[in-house]
Amino acid sequence: MVDNPGDFGLDPIRVTARKAGVSTYTLVRMAQYLGFEGFEDLRAPFRTALVSRSETTDNLEWLEAVAQYPGTGKAQVDATRNSLAITQRSLHQLSPDKLQRVVDLMFGARNVYLTGVRASYGLAYYFHYVGRMALPTLQLIPRHMNSSIDELNYANEEDILIVITVTPYSKETIHACQFAKSRGIKLIMISDSEVIASELKPEEVLVVSTITTHFFACYSGAMAVIENILALLVKRGGKEAEKRIESYEDLRSDVDAYWSK
């Protein structure tokens, strides 16, 4: 812990135990012996220190060196500045009230359906992969090459559809939104515009900036907004969410899912 404070702040307990050559139970007992309630309480100050030492986006002198790199330096700097700018803009537009309403809707729903196609699918997949651990009702659609509408056939006003879509908007996604509204399903959109189709009246729209230096939308801002949602889901999920996350980690450990040196 003393020699490797950065690793200790970042690594899961099993990784720390493996590196130290002890059991996870030993680490838990050590934390309790030192007066902490559990291992996470012992690790918390190390994680806080990592964040406080992180470089802020106000200190960008290092970009000057990147810009001097022959051939690609200027393009890399332009893309970097763009990603930082749209991330900041997207988060600046994310009001706490709106984010709280979104999380409340998600926890109050019978089922939370999540969809995104083409480039947006990667965001939707990650959102689901992490979010389902905190909120088991979160479902990624379509599944097994069905259409999103097929998956919504039995949904009703007790359910929510979360849609990730940016210009140019996928016709399949818009059709899913229209179908959802016709069934009384609550609609939450993560998009680059408040107004996509005049007939759509979402409960909430989380507007993200997707300005880019190339031909395709830049998703840095959208990912940052999704990370905020995930953080609140885990926080709201409390001890039950922590238990589910731990169960997934146990499962992956049991099947030797992760590479180790």
Question: How are the secondary structure elements laid out?
Answer:
Elements (H helix, E strand, L loop, with lengths): L4 H6 L2 H8 L3 H10 L5 H15 L8 H6 L5 H20 L3 H13 L3 E4 L3 H16 L3 E3 L7 H4 L8 E6 L5 H12 L3 E6 L12 E4 L12 H35 L7
Helix pairs in contact: 6-11, 7-11, 8-11
Could you explain how this protein is built, in words?
The protein has 261 residues and is α/β, with parallel strands linked by helices. 56% of the residues lie in helices and 9% in strands. It has helices at residues 5-10, 13-20, 24-33, 39-53, 62-67, 73-92, 96-108, 119-134, 148-151, 171-182, 220-254; strands at 112-115, 138-140, 160-165, 186-191, 204-207. Strands 2-1-3-4-5 form a 5-stranded parallel beta sheet. β1, α8 (119-134) and β2 (138-140) form a beta-alpha-beta unit. α6 (73-92) packs across α11 (220-254), α7 (96-108) crosses α11 and α8 packs across α11. It is globular, with a radius of gyration of 21 Å. The relative contact order is 0.11. The model has no long low-confidence stretch (mean pLDDT 87).
